[in-house]
Amino acid sequence: MISIRVAAAFAEAGVSARLGCVSARVEIRRTDEALERTLDWEVSRVADDSQRHPVGDVAPIAATRQAYRALGKDPSRYRPASEALRRRVADGKGLPRVNTAVDTGNLVSLRTGHAVGVYDLAAITAPVLLRPGAAGEGYEAIGRGHFNLEGLPVLTDAEGPFGSPSSDSTRTMISSGTRQILMVLYAFGPSADLDRNTAFAAASVGAYLGGQHVESAVVQAHPA
Question: What pLDDT shows up at residue 223?
């Protein structure tokens, strides 16, 4: 597993931050029949659940929104990706299909409620750090143009920021040539199920991406 840390700055801001991480060698395909069936079932489940429970009440989403506020970011303007995904399903818009890696990340997000990033590991230069975004920081986000990172939880490597719970950079995006991935579940607050959810993510990588050499870990801040 690539070296990943969580900055102590979150605890100093009163935010509990952890990451569920999965790395693997994979085979990226356009579609997978078993994944399609599972996604269809998950979309139906989430759509039904959203009729009874507000999307914002899903525990990992509520915790992420609270973390954003504590860091000075408006979660209604910068929605966590997990919330945006569920709202899309709740509105009857279904899910776009991209490729088996991105689609597996969406499955994990819908099932667990966590924002999930899936990154091309070959484009990442260790070490990786989750920290609050600084003033003036930003990157070219997938499908969104320049994205303001100030106050957001941000994944960075030796080259700078590349991911966040709201939108990821084009620098580390998945392509048909991706051979190794890093999947990250962003967790804030008292996420008692993160170990189980990370195990589900690892199993999904194995099942739908032909994952080999699958490694998983839960990362949290340690005193400096």
Answer: 46
